[in-house]
Amino acid sequence: MASSFSTKIPSLSAIFSIYTSLSAFTILFKTILHEIIPVKIRDFIISKFTDYFSSYFNSNFTFIIEEQSDYVTNQTFRAAQVYLPTLLPRISTRSLLVSSSDLKNPLAKPKFGIPVKAKIIDDFEGIRLEWTLLSAKDNDNPYQSKQKRYFHLSCKKEFRDKIMSDYFTYIAKSSVKILTHKENLNIYNYNPDCQRWESAIFQHHTTFETLAMEPELKNTLIRDLDAFSNGKDFFKTVGRAWKRGYLLYGPPGTGKSSLVAAIANHMNYSIYDLQIQSVQDDAMLRQILTSTENRSILLIEDLDCSGADASCRNEHKDEGENGKTKQNKKKKKDTKVPLSGLLNFVDGLWSSCVEERIIVFTTNHKEKLDPALLRPGRMDVHILMDYCTPTVFKKLAALYLEIKKHDLFEPIKKMLLEVKATPAEITEKLMVSKNPDVTLKGLVEFLESKKMTKESVDTETKEAEA
Fold first, then answer.
1. What pLDDT digit, counting tens, does each position of 158-178 carry?
2. Which of 72, 383, 443, 446 could form a cystine bridge with 290, CB 3.0-4.6 A?
3. How far is residue 417's CA from residue 421's CA, in Å, rounded to a whole number?
């Protein structure tokens, strides 16, 4: 019996011979695979074998959620970005992103975020889900230097349909609820190097309550904003994009930026501050604006300096006409984004990409803007931010000096009707001292000086005309 068993065990030489044969076959197979079979066919065969064995032995299913979807930001990716930080206590990795963008309060509680390759566990109706944030270079677009970010969401195969039908809807609704009740607003600036909006906490304290503005105009604007906020069904019924355009025009220092801050605080909207002069072309403009969020303010300041003036209409005139061709070509080079590209995001087809958006343009010279931009339906409301009036002065005095009456109020009001002084200039004088007598006396002297300068200029003008 023992001799029979020993005869069944292969000898060491036989085992070595089999190993040598297998090694030779493996080397031959690799040679054939690498030198005879083309690379694409080889990769295809390997991927098929990998998919087969992974599907056979792996019971999980993975959803891939990329940051970009077609031309715009993937809204499912954005919803996950908002929702997942609420699950940070369930993070399974030993790292965490820590950041603070509150420039006014260095002691503010930091925000915690999800680092790349971190895994977060979620539980949805008894289903265990695993989220992972990943990042890789976008090889499909060699001209872009930014990293391509995406989430992996893994679950058991049998729950795939449940996740597709219910879970993604759940995180979308959760993200909307979180954004609606957010505590801090953000102000965004576009970074062309990484091709992404970068944010800081927006803590401008101007509200409509503290804004020095004519009461009738202020109340009209508040009613208009509230009607817009509650007008989703109306805009859908009439077939218009849910947006509102405001043009703030007037001299520098008349409170245009403060009004934007008051609108943001009233609506609880973050601000996307776009420097239109830095945009290279229409394609870049579309990419920038379609990556903004719903319920936001798009702010484009100093529109008259961005190439949206009436001279844009002369860009396509024939050479030699009135001797202006060279000048127009120069303007065309300076104006990177044509007016048509800007108008497409005001009332064109692309304006419907983002819902509940307020577009605010500011300019110091409304008369220089192209009439096409001022046409009804593009800028819905035109608001003149004018020089300081007696009513605005009284509001400023109440805010800065905490007084409602003073003997110098009447002389100041009369001079404000005779000379042009911006609210910014008046505010500067009101901040000189907390003593109303000292401050208002200095303001009177300032206005008298402006009045004398104005009279001197008028006299010189008359003499020149004569």
1. 999 999 999 999 999 998 888
2. 72
3. 10
